[in-house]
Amino acid sequence: MNGAVELPLGEPELAFRAAGDTHVRRSVLPSGIRVLSEQVPGSRSATIGFWVAVGSRDEHPAESGNPATFGSTHFLEHLLFKGTETRSALDIAVSFDAVGGEHNAVTAKEYTCYYAKVQDRDLPMAIEVLADMFTSSVLDPDDFESERRVILEELAMAGDDPADVANERFFEAVLGTHPLARPIGGDPETIGVATRDAVLEHYRASYRPRDLVVTAAGAVDHDALVAGLSAALETAGWELSETAAPVDRRPAELALVDGRSALTVVERPGEQVNLVLGVPGLVATDERRAVLSVLNTVFGGGMSSRLFQQVRERRGLAYAVYSFAPGYSDAGVFGMYAGCAPKNAATVAALMRTELERLAHHGVTDDELSRAIGYLGGASALALEDSDTRMSRLGRAELALGEFADLDEALRRVGRVTADDVRALAGELADRPFSLVAVGPVDEHAFRSIVDQPDTRPDVA
Amino acid sequence: MNGAVELPLGEPELAFRAAGDTHVRRSVLPSGIRVLSEQVPGSRSATIGFWVAVGSRDEHPAESGNPATFGSTHFLEHLLFKGTETRSALDIAVSFDAVGGEHNAVTAKEYTCYYAKVQDRDLPMAIEVLADMFTSSVLDPDDFESERRVILEELAMAGDDPADVANERFFEAVLGTHPLARPIGGDPETIGVATRDAVLEHYRASYRPRDLVVTAAGAVDHDALVAGLSAALETAGWELSETAAPVDRRPAELALVDGRSALTVVERPGEQVNLVLGVPGLVATDERRAVLSVLNTVFGGGMSSRLFQQVRERRGLAYAVYSFAPGYSDAGVFGMYAGCAPKNAATVAALMRTELERLAHHGVTDDELSRAIGYLGGASALALEDSDTRMSRLGRAELALGEFADLDEALRRVGRVTADDVRALAGELADRPFSLVAVGPVDEHAFRSIVDQPDTRPDVA
């Protein structure tokens, strides 16, 4: 089989051809565990990830009584490295360090993923250790307090990064009260009041067999992966004989974002103003994702893009300038970033907004369209050389998209995008409520004329 | 041939076996151009770099009359993207963007490298465009002024990153008046007074055939590379019939660093204090580089390292904590980094210094030694999957080391390291003048007891 394939949840196994010569297989175990693999011929290493579809958007205020309080999903992710019934934190670290493997985790807005990249011979070890961490973390009370301090340092580090701050505030500005608007790690206050009992309850409720998705790419044999994973989970104490269906995928309906224009200025010392501007975007499963990829490439995706040329090459107003367009299950954002001198901040912000309007009115040239299509094809081919990228694509296919599009099919969709499609989408985006965030030595009066009737959000920083 | 091979400068060609099944070849063209390639069977992409052994250390104050003024090497690197006799800045960007290639450059303390990563079919294009940029940049006066503003923004961005600031100040603290101590990009003042005439003169003096080293790895055929490169350079206007020997490698004698202890505190607002502590290290060609790799791995190289365990795992005092040990032709540094709460800064600094002294007195365990050896082997094997890494290793071999050690030989050297070697080197490092840099909301009194008789450098930030 070829092209895009709906992944039928609950179906025992499905095999289909994927990018290049690789072979993607998917199994659903009786316990509800899903396993997806992509074997890359000739590869001598593998990347494996253990995923759950739980992220910061699934969290609640402490007073709600829900154990998944703000920041607790990221807190839990940290704790899984602190030890199990049979492995100390040092044991876990030594397992990967002794073979030079990479080993980390990421908490996102809609998922959490624990992953490792190792040489082929070390894949059984990686499966065993990740399975143990995933199933058997002890969440020791002393470790809980120590890790609370580590997370507060992580938040402080991000707080000292003005681009990080601007990005977080941008999601809040555009998505308002939507759960995707909240920062992933919580804040010092919510981390300060998190309790071990609640995080433990969150762990038990969210890390069940039916929640688990394992994806692997590179030097991986699917049958051996399924067998090794099952054995490792059972050794770690999981009872896999109970039958269950995997959890349902998160509903993919577009939520109503409370579409107001917002102006957020976080005034603080520094040499630059970090600007993030933009509008609500598209959901991850929107059929116009390919159009948006082309639009984002032409607009702010490389050194030949409109933003780079207008802001940096022609005017020398910024060093870093680009656009971005992440999509989630029921919301998305389309944003532009630039870091610039305070005296130029209003000019740069106005210029970026004008460029979006110009794209909406005049569309893209044929040259730009074909260049963007070439860009997306070439960049994807290079990215797929890494097993990390393939492992992530499988997880995203299973958790967010419900289909796996091989490279050929993905590029066919991009190749069908027309200049009219791009202009229509740009027009739609340019008409949405426009928000602006500025972090640095600047005050909000500079931007009043750029954001229409803004809902100025209080600066809580 | 196998193992480490002295690269005889001026010898027409040398072939030897490299990591895995790859094949490394080196040619010296009559004009003095050096070409090194590593063909990786089965690879569908390639990374190519154009190098010169000119970096920030080769710069001088404006009043010296030398055209390579502080920051001008990095300035020149930016200008090479701005256009040639036959290609505009947009043309250059479009060439790579249209095929989804990666395309960038790096200015370092001892070299500058322009590179591209592309699919195999696009390698001839990459050679042509890079050759044109390297030989035929016009350094247009208007572009010069516009790019001056871009570089000032780049410096401002780095100035807003407290870890960047701490790292730059650390080199100044440890290396004092040595040319390697200076920051790579210059500062706003030196960039402000740079002139187009001087940068043009610097370009003409430093980018001659005898300066050029081209390295490529991945899907690359050596003979085709040499032929394509020669043709591209001649098309761009270079006269290659003149015979010349390559420039001599930079002398690798250890310079006398003015070994004083220094305490540098850059007091500024923020949530964390960024600490960098350490001592003068080893030169790049020191025969104890393998010992230092093992030492650095045990001490601060991974989650099982001493620093990670003592500072983060046991005490929760930092999120990011690690050590580093870069070596240059005639100097090096050994440093430790941590970002922590202001109230813990003195504790963390003292703890890190104590850990170095503990390593000096008690050495490493057999477990730690064998784990570090496993770490270096595994991490190298994973890193060599990327043609980027292989391309960089070839450049470093030619410019800095004068030999190319294949993976097997490199690991043999690491495998011969003993616990006594590590302890002896740790003892030597711990006895060297110790410097400390802190950037954040803290004052110098906190650290007086940690640095012995410090030479407090003025805060010029």
UniProtKB/TrEMBL annotation, chains A, B:
<feature type="domain" description="Peptidase M16 C-terminal">
    <location>
        <begin position="195"/>
        <end position="373"/>
    </location>
</feature>
<dbReference type="Pfam" id="PF05193">
    <property type="entry name" value="Peptidase_M16_C"/>
</dbReference>
<comment type="similarity">
    <text>Belongs to the peptidase M16 family.</text>
</comment>
<protein>
    <submittedName>
        <fullName>Insulinase family protein</fullName>
    </submittedName>
</protein>
<feature type="domain" description="Peptidase M16 N-terminal">
    <location>
        <begin position="34"/>
        <end position="186"/>
    </location>
</feature>
<dbReference type="InterPro" id="IPR050361">
    <property type="entry name" value="MPP/UQCRC_Complex"/>
</dbReference>
<dbReference type="GO" id="GO:0046872">
    <property type="term" value="F:metal ion binding"/>
</dbReference>
<dbReference type="Pfam" id="PF00675">
    <property type="entry name" value="Peptidase_M16"/>
</dbReference>
<dbReference type="InterPro" id="IPR007863">
    <property type="entry name" value="Peptidase_M16_C"/>
</dbReference>
<dbReference type="InterPro" id="IPR011249">
    <property type="entry name" value="Metalloenz_LuxS/M16"/>
</dbReference>
<dbReference type="InterPro" id="IPR011765">
    <property type="entry name" value="Pept_M16_N"/>
</dbReference>
